[in-house]
Amino acid sequence: MTIQQHNPMHPGAFIKRVYLTPFNIASNELARKLQVSHGLVSRLINGNTNVSPAMALKLSKVLGRSPESWLLMQDNYDLCQVKKEVDLQNYETIAFAV
Prior knowledge:
single chain; 98 residues; 434 Repressor (Amino-terminal Domain); 5 helices
């Protein structure tokens, strides 16, 4: 069973809300731990870049959660955004013979 969120949070916003703000961790500290540029972390927590498979592995090691959960969070966010933009009204389902 799949539970669908109506407005899923971008993984970067999740990182900021769950890890950075409550534990008073600066984004440049997270960047050092992830061994990436501060700019990349800044873009991520501001929702301007996506979690890649490589970043999912790094986030998993540094913050916890599985790499799959980070990628799923990104996919759910992306799909929700696209659903707001793509009009499927003129598409028809193929009727397959059973």
